[in-house]
Design a protein that fits this description.
The chain is mainly α. It has three domains: about 100 residues, Orthogonal Bundle (Fumarase C, Chain B, domain 1); about 230 residues, Fumarase C, Chain A, domain 2; about 100 residues, Ribonucleotide Reductase Protein R1, domain 1 (Orthogonal Bundle). Helix 3 packs antiparallel against helix 4 and helix 14 packs across helix 15. The radius of gyration is 31 Å and the shape is elongated. The protein starts with 13 loop residues before the first helix and ends with a helix. Arginine binds next to helix 6.
């Protein structure tokens, strides 16, 4: 018998039953569902709708059902439409008629919205911890190699020398903003829908403030239609995840390039690469390629739910059942992606020799322009003069720092022998002592700041 079977004298079509069912994917909400039901039963008791004895029976029955799910002994029946009906059906088998009192004043509409928020809250806290681990690995990596200098790129062309740790920490701050976005979204996740009923609230005097407190929610939803009909907090989580996925993908892409033979700036730990079935020499950066690739599904999941929601009429529609698979897929994806990426980062082996060898002295052209600026040349003019020196060096097939003094002086008499002192990457990096710059002291201060963030200070 269906929960809602009263008005029906025929069985629904068998394929329709399968089409309708969400249990194959929403069974993971069992713990949240039972937790919500316990609170609701207590609320009913406080409203005088259940005797102490009935409450006892229901709570004991719910514990039993929880044990069955936990131990994998729960037996699903074909008539179990979703996690809510499955739990209630089983409760009925265990405790009899009194089970029919549990759904008093409640609807699966406010129930599912509550379950999702309970589930999500716990998941988000775990993911935040995972993201924090990734940040910690980045800080350690930066700190271990503060001295290390590498070419910095714009347009994937060598631009100016930077510290390796500076590049590493650039991702720390991206992930920090992701954590801030998550903390912000969590505030809106943590609002209680239960008690909104099907769409219009309930008439039985169950105290929603009690429910909120009992379930650890910070607030009660202020409008019952909104409470059952929107999934915007899920959208926030999915967009948070999509943005985080994009950050992870960019880090992965940098590392894939840097780990290539051509760059050779880092070596990846073999635990995070895989071989080729055909080419014996290969060690492919699969962990990173998958990190990059997974951002596609994280973005796709966001788009999927956006499209489901767009154009829905007010309150609950069955379309909303389609919120679960994208949400769960995103959470599952991140649950693996974050620790794997953390593993890659914490085992990275930077290659100082390769970084040094790759660094073209032309990346110090800006410093050479600054040299002229210090001799009174307007920056635009200095830029032009150094540009001519770069072209001249290129014409002669020489690196910029090998261009002879007379060639420089033919371009501007303000060039003197001390110009060659500019060609010192370490000095150039240290000259950028502005807050957030590449100087040794600036990077150490940045590491300190990152450590404070990690310590929650
Ligand atoms: N399985 C449903 C969902 O995930 C639960 C809510 C069903 N509500 C209803 N009125 N049929 O959305």
């Amino acid at each position: 018998m269906k929960l809602w079977g009263g008005r029906y004298d025929v069985d629904v079509d068998e394929l329709m039953e399968r089409f309708n069912a969400s249990l194959p994917f929403d069974h993971r909400l069992w713990e949240a569902d039972i937790e919500g039901s316990r609170a609701w039963a207590e609320g009913l008791h406080r409203a005088g709708l259940l005797t102490a004895e009935e409450l006892e029976t229901l709570l004991r029955g719910l514990d039993h059902v929880a044990d069955e799910w936990r131990s994998g002994r729960f037996e699903v029946k074909p008539s179990d439409e979703d996690i809510h009906t499955a739990v209630e059906r089983r409760l009925h088998e265990l405790v009899g008629e009194v089970a029919g009192k549990l759904h008093t004043g409640r609807s699966r509409n406010d129930q599912v919205a509550t379950d999702e928020r309970l589930y999500l809250r716990a998941e988000l806290d775990r993911l935040d911890a995972g993201l924090r681990e990734l940040q910690a690995a980045l800080v350690e990596q930066a700190e271990r190699h503060v001295e290390l200098i590498m070419p910095g790129y714009t347009h994937l062309q060598q631009a100016q020398p930077i510290r390796y740790g500076h590049w590493v920490l650039s991702y720390f701050w991206m992930f920090q903003r992701d954590r801030e976005r998550l903390a912000d979204a969590r505030k809106r996740v943590n609002v209680l829908p239960l008690g909104a009923g099907a769409l219009a609230g309930h008439s039985l005097g169950v105290d929603r403030r009690f429910l909120a407190e009992r379930l650890g929610f910070d607030a009660v939803s202020p409008n019952s239609l909104d409470a059952v009909g929107d999934r915007d907090v899920l959208l926030e989580v999915l967009s948070w995840a999509a943005i985080l996925g994009v950050h992870a993908s960019r880090l992965a892409e940098d590392l894939i390039l840097y780990a290539s033979r051509e760059f050779g700036f880092v070596r990846l730990d073999p635990r995070y690469t895989t071989g080729s079935s055909l080419m014996p020499q290969k060690a492919n950066p699969d962990a990173l390629e998958l990190t990059r690739g997974k951002s596609g599904r994280l973005i796709g999941n966001l788009v999927a739910l956006l499209v489901v929601l767009k154009g829905l009429p007010s309150a609950y529609n069955k379309d909303l059942q389609e919120d679960k698979e994208p949400l769960f897929d995103t959470l599952d994806t991140l649950r693996l992606l974050l620790p794997v990426l953390t593993g890659v980062v914490s085992t990275l082996q930077p290659q100082p020799e390769r970084m040094r060898a790759a660094l073209d002295t032309a990346t110090l052209a800006t410093d050479l322009a600054d040299y002229l600026v210090r001799r009174g040349v307007p920056f635009r003019r200095a830029h032009h003069l150094v540009g001519r020196a770069v072209a001249e060096a290129e014409r002669r097939g020489l690196p910029l720092h090998r261009l002879p003094l007379e060639a420089f002086r033919a371009i501007s008499p303000l060039f003197e022998a001390d110009l060659y002192e500019v060609f010192d990457a370490e000095q150039a990096v240290n000259a950028r002592a502005s807050e957030g710059g590449t100087a040794d002291a600036a990077l150490r201060a940045q590491i300190e700041a990152a450590r404070r963030v990690l310590a929650g200070k």
